[in-house]
Every structure is written in structure tokens, then in C-alpha cells.
Amino acid sequence: MNKVKQYLSYAAGAFGHDAFYATLSTYFMIFVTGQLFDTPDKAFNNQMLGWVTTMIVGIRLVEIIFDPIIGGVVDNTRTRWGKFKPWLVIAGLISSVLLVVIFTNFGGLATAHPMLYLVLFGIVFVTLDAFYSFKDIAFWSMLPALSLDSSTREKFGTVARFGSTLGQQGVQIVVVPLVMFFSITFTGAHTETRTGWFWFAVVIGVIAYLGALLTAAGTKEEDNIVRQNTEKVGLLEVFKVVGKNDQLMWQAISYIMFALAYVVTNSLLLYYFKYVMGADSKFYLVGIFTAIEGMIAVAIFPTLTKFLARRTIFFSGAVVMLAGYVLFMFAGNNLPVVLTAVTMFFMPYPIMFLVVLMTITDSVEYGQWKLGTRHESVTLAIRPLLDKLAGAFANGVVGFAAVVAGMTGSAKPSDITAQGLQMFKVFMFYGPMILIVISVLIYWRKVTLTETRHAEIVAELEERLQEK
Questions:
Q1: pTM of whole model > 0.90?
Q2: pLDDT by residue (tens digit) across 176-185?
Q3: Do 196 and 182 contact (CB within 8 A), yes or no?
Q4: Cα–Cα distance between 55 and 119 in angstroms, integer?
């Protein structure tokens, strides 16, 4: 199959996939804290916010232990269309439909019958999260199946990150205008409404599913002797495969710190614009700036890898991010300074993500070399698992931060106390900076699977399997 077609198809899937992820992990909590519970009883609103936030965190934490099992199910899938595409098509449809459902108050049950709402919400969210996991794992675990060559993998990873950057940052650009457009169109209200958020979710759900269909139609798994070295894995073997791959585990520990820091800060950006600056109408500028710099960052990644080792790129990116945090802490309401700080914070993220993605992808062959059999989806399930874990904790942090800072409902910047603002900064700046430092230290000291070492492992695997 034409490589360009495959690159474009994979990028399209990443575009829709990350638009979905941004909506679920970031903007759903903004819908919950700002629109879902809007009764005059503030104590009731905060109580329900606490319940929903706790449920989201709890559900995602419990379901996370099943992600390696889901990876095993995908690895064990045998169909005429391969093992990834059926999950993209089926799970992609179900998760898109349920995304739209959670952006409603379930026909008024959220306030009229809150306990019934919580039960139904729990059922829907569990189902949504499970099918999202199948699609997420199937999509990203395609990467090692598309090529064994690190250079070609980097091209697939780069175009995928290009698409996902446009998808994620594109949501930042359109979220406020779209919600306002649909609010005005369907209710006549010149402010955010639940109806506006509902139709915004419809748009994202459709885009995500179309992307999944394009990936399923336009990509092809590579068939070679190394990929044939597989066997079906049972429940216990799934966790052994993950636990015995030391390079995968160290990369995972480093990445979860980095991902949590990024997701928390990114999730609180709209709160900063809305409740600190009083400039939520300017938030689209964040999306435009980060989309442009994201495309530049992804475009230069292949060039960077020609001159710098991945570990050097990761360390350098962290230094730039930390400098952005420092500038942001002193930016106040100055929009140009805020946008400069956001630029410094975001610019390294797509590049650092690609470093992590390539290392985890290469750990497929490392695990095969070490354990004797190949497990693509079980191994690649770790990266989505970590993003979900980061998203779960971030949802909890954002919900808690919004309540303690007083940034809920119809609150205005003038309502935010000095103490509330200081608490908000702890969650948005100080905590994430500490996590990034820890992440870099772990990566630098413990992750030893370099590009050169991976090439040696692939050559040894091919020689070993040809002798059998």
C-alpha cells in the first residue's frame, strides 16, 4: 500500500482521536463544573460536583488495571482485517455516541433525581471508558505493526503526532466559539449553555469516528518473520509481559509524572483565562498559538533525531517547559506574557511525547528479545493506560482546584479571593513543575534503550528467528 496514503490515514485517525481525548479529559470537567449543576443551592452543586469528580477518578483508576488485559484481547484478535481495525470501527462508534450522552443532564435527572443520575452516569461512563480503551490501544499499538524500521516508525509517529496536535489544539481554538454558536443558535442565549456543550460534543464525536474509519481503510500491517513470532497470551501472562520488560516500566514511571504535569496545567488553562484574567473570549488564541508551534515542533522532530539522542531531546524540552512555568507564574493578566509562557510550556510537549512514544514502541522488540515472544498491543497498551491514569488524576485535581479556588458556576474574576488564587497556582504551576523534574531524573538515569541499542536488538532477533 502507498506509504503516503498510510501516513495520511494514520494522521487523520490521530487528529480525531486526540480531539476526542481533549474533550473527554479537559472540557468535560469544564462542562460539569460550569453547566451541569446550576441550581441556586450552591452546597448541592458542590456536593454533586464532588460526587461526579470522585466517580470519574474512581472509574478510570479501576478500569486502568484492565488496560493490559484489553491489550491482550487486541493481541489475540484474529480477523481477515487484522487485529486492530475491527476495534477501531466498533469501539470508535460506541465511544463517540457515549461521549455525546455524557454531555447532557440525562433529561433533567442531574438535578431532579440526583442519585438516579449518578447511577446512570456511572454505567455510561464505565462503558464509554472501556470502549475508548479498546480504540485507544488498537490505534497506538498499530505503530510497531506498520514497520520494524525505527526511521519509518518515526515518520509514522511524527505524522500521527502532527495530526493529534492539530486535533487537540484545534479543540482549544473552537471550543468556546462552537459552544457559543450552538447556544445562540438553539437557545438564543448569548452565553454558554448545556445545549451548546451538547452540540459541541456531537461535532467532536463525529470527527473522532470519521478519523477512525480513515485509519482502518488506509493503513496496512507489515508481515515479516519478527512479527510472526507471537502467541496468544492468557490473563496472568499479560501482566508478566509488562512487568518483566524493565525498559518499558522505567519509561512508564517517567512518563506518568510528565503526563500528569502537562494534563493538569493544560486542563486549568481555560479556568485561568475565565476566572483569573476574565478573558475566556480570548482563549481561542491559545489554540492558534499552540497549533502553530505544535506543527513546527513535530516537523522538526525528524531533524532533531539526526543530531541529538532522544534522552538529550527529552532533557532539553523539560528545561524549556520549566522556564515557561516560571514566566507564567509572574504573567498575571498580561495577555502577551501569558501567551509567551503558554508557548514555552507547550512547544516541547509534542517532541517529548514523540520521544516517549518511540521508546515505548521500540520496547516491543526489547521485550521480544528478552522474553522470547512478541506482544505488540500488550506493550503499547501501557502508553494509553498512562494517559488515562494522568487524565483520571487530573480530573480529580481540576475538580478539587475549581471548588477550593471558588471557580465554579457563575463566579467572576472579582469573586476569586487571594487565598483561592494562591491555591489555584499550587495546582496549576508548583505541583506540575516538581513532577517534571522527577520525570526527567528517572528518564535520564533508568531508560537505557537507545536508538542504537534497538537496531542491535532487531538485527539479533532476525538472526535468531532465521536460524529456527
A1: no
A2: 899 999 999 9
A3: yes
A4: 10
Q: How far is CA 109 from each of CA 104, 116, 118, 370, 374, rounded to the nearest angstrom?
A: 10, 7, 9, 53, 48
As a whole number of angstroms, the distance between CA 315 and CA 235 comes to 37
Do residues 404 and 423 touch, judged by C-beta distance below 8 A? yes
Residue 113, φ and ψ in degrees, nearest 5: -135, 75
- Tally Cβ neighbours within 10 Å of residue 448: 11
User: Please, which residues have CB within 8 angstroms of residue 65's CB and are 6 or more apart in sequence?
Assistant: none
Nearest one of 410, 404, 439, 441 to 423, comparing CA atoms: 404
Q: What number of CA atoms fall less than 13 Å from residue 355's CA on the CB side?
A: 32
Cα 465-355-64 angle, rounded to 5 deg? 80
Cell numbers at 133, concatenated: 480503551
Please say whether the beta carbons of 277 and 411 come within 8 A. Answer: no
pLDDT digits (tens, 9 = 90+) for 64-73: 777 777 777 7
What's the distance, Cα to Cα, between the start and end of the chain in Å? 30
By the 8 A CB rule, do 104 and 128 touch? no
Do 29 and 37 touch, CB atoms closer than 8 A? no
| 303 burial level (CB within 10 Å; 0-12, 13-18, 19+) | exposed
